[in-house]
């Protein structure tokens, strides 16, 4: 179904772009000043559609045993410069080696998306906390907490739905793909508003 949605977006996007290009050569129309922006936004959305299709094609890959601790540390390290620039302190309460059922490349993309959202929620600085919990030998739970403004109950429920977003210019695909990847490997992704402030992203894995 998700692949069909992505493919179905391509035709209307192509039509919108063609109409905008046609309007560009008709300078008498009052909307001409906005045409370049329309084309740019269509191209941006097309890029997201291509990313979505790439994710979905990747899901055909076989599950493998992945070291969750190692790949989480690697993902956090990739944001080191951005974390310093945004004055965000990082606390990692993870250690040892925890093997989970996932896919190395896709799990890296999941973590990058969740971490990017957490960092965006703290433009004035704050704290990013990561912790890992085990539920016997069958499950592992990675918690990613930020100290941003938090989220509404509606966002808790809808954040992982396709094309749901509260960001200006956002397309609502990033967290949707996070959910798709987690569920594909038997896991789950959830968001929770924290009191007095902040958001918790929970990633549950099979071991």
UniProtKB/TrEMBL annotation:
Sorted alphabetically, the keyword list is:
ATP-binding, Cell membrane, Kinase, Membrane, Nucleotide-binding, Phosphoprotein, Transferase
Gene Ontology molecular function, alphabetical? ATP binding; phosphorelay sensor kinase activity
Domain Histidine kinase stretches? 4-207
Q: Give a yes or no for keyword Flavoprotein in this entry.
A: no
Q: How does it sit in the membrane?
A: Multi-pass membrane protein
One Gene Ontology CC term in the entry: plasma membrane
Reply yes or no: does the keyword Phosphoprotein apply.
yes
Q: Which domain of life is it from?
A: Bacteria
Predominant subcellular localization, coarse grouping: membrane
Where can this protein be found?
Cell membrane
Q: Where are the transmembrane segments?
A: none
- Give its E.C. classification number: 2.7.13.3
Reactions catalysed, semicolon-separated, are:
ATP + protein L-histidine = ADP + protein N-phospho-L-histidine
Top EC class of this enzyme = transferase
Q: A Pfam family for this UniProt protein?
A: HisKA
- Which SUPFAM superfamilies does this UniProt record tie to the protein? ATPase domain of HSP90 chaperone/DNA topoisomerase II/histidine kinase, Homodimeric domain of signal transducing histidine kinase
Q: Which PANTHER family match?
A: SENSOR PROTEIN CREC, SENSOR PROTEIN RSTB
Q: What is this protein called?
A: histidine kinase
Tell me which species this is from. Answer: Pseudomonas putida (Arthrobacter siderocapsulatus)
């Amino acid at each position: 179904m998700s692949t069909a949605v992505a493919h179905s977006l391509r035709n209307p996007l192509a039509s919108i772009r063609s109409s905008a290009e046609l309007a560009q050569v008709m300078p008498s129309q009052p909307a001409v000043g906005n045409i370049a922006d329309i084309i740019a936004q269509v191209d941006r959305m097309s890029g997201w559609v291509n990313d979505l299709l790439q994710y979905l094609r990747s899901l055909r890959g076989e599950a493998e045993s992945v070291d969750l601790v190692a790949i989480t540390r690697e993902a956090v390290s990739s944001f080191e410069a951005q974390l310093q620039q945004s004055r965000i302190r990082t606390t990692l309460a993870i250690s040892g080696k925890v093997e989970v059922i996932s896919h190395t490349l896709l799990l890296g993309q999941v973590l990058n998306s969740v971490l990017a959202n957490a960092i965006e929620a703290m433009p004035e600085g704050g704290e990013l906390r990561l912790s890992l919990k085990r539920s016997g030998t069958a499950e592992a739970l990675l918690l990613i907490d930020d100290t941003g403004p938090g989220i509404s109950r509606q966002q808790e429920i809808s954040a992982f739905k396709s094309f749901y977003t509260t960001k200006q210019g956002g397309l609502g695909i990033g967290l949707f793909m996070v959910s798709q990847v987690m569920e594909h490997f038997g896991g789950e992704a959830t968001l929770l508003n924290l009191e007095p402030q902040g958001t918790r992203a929970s990633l549950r894995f099979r071991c």
